[in-house]
Specification:
Elements: H1 25-32, H2 38-44, H3 49-55, H4 58-68, H5 75-82, H6 88-95, E1 98-99, E2 117-126, E3 129-139, H7 143-146, E4 152-153, E5 161-166, H8 171-180, E6 181-189, E7 194-197, E8 201-202, E9 205-208, E10 215-224, E11 232-243, E12 248-259, H9 268-279, E13 286-287, H10 293-341
Antiparallel strand pairs: 1-13, 2-3, 2-6, 4-12, 5-12, 6-7, 6-8, 9-10, 10-11, 11-12
Helix pairs in contact: 4-6
Length: 342
Amino acid sequence: MACSTIEPPPTTTTVVQSGIAALHPDILETHILTRLDGPTLASASCADTKLHSLSTQPDLWTNICTSTWPSTSAPRLLHLMSSFPDGPRSFFSSSYPILHRCTNSSTNSDPSAPPVGLISAVDIYYNEKPIISKVQETETATEWFRCSPFRIDVLDPKDVVPTSIQHPGDDDTCRKLAENISLSWIVMDPTGRRAANLSSHKAVSVERHWLSGEVQLRFASTLGGDKGTTELVQCGIVVTCDGSKTGEMQVTEVSLQLEDMDGVHLMGKESLVILHKALKGQNVKKVKREHGGREGYQEYLEMKRERKERKIRLEGTLDMACLVAIGIFAFSFGVWRFAFLL
């Protein structure tokens, strides 16, 4: 009797997923990804294809934007964010980092026209809780804007925003206030669908008036000017705070201005060209909010000091040259006159 060989049944290999990839997409999207902040969510999208697909959903990034910047919850801004190339995700990518300093020495003119209007989304926080959220639209096409010093005010002259924060009474409490307050100023080009954050996040300086007790917090970023890497422009945001009758702090002014390295405020036309380049990513680089704020401001002040010293030395050299020239002329004239009299 012939022996028959019985072949074993084919084995099936079962791949068991482990880790976060094994979770159901609904759990990932509803209970995990919604708890992440913007930078963490962006990192998670690079992990694998599944996470990338889930973490790039527009609704998820809309919630990230509105929770990070409450001012963006305005219907006008929600519509604008959705019109960006990648929706609210690209809006966050443009608006979260801060602008540091000029990195491109190119002085070629930009063929595209500057924006005909700017939208500012301004949020001020105390201990990470918003105390002011404002949206300000600025018309830039008028001759009045172009020929006047550039300035954007978020509050009207008579507006006062009360807070529950104790108004600082000395320099030590002023410094503590500066550590607890942060600011975001996102400027947007609604036509070009571009955005950039002009704030240093934390205050780069704080000053208290010795008589009135008024406190001014300065936030700043450094932009590339129109004359190459040696010409920088400071984008300065000033928050002015005063005390109420009951001792609480109230915000009386929030303004934005641009000034050159000589401390001269730029006009509207010049400022618009510089902001247009910054919005397009020209002559600037972006850094994380934890880096580059105060450090970049100190670098700017050092460059400003060196520029002033060079200017003083140059003026001294020119003055000396003029004195020498006058002396030579006087001597020559004296010799000529003496010879003529003889």
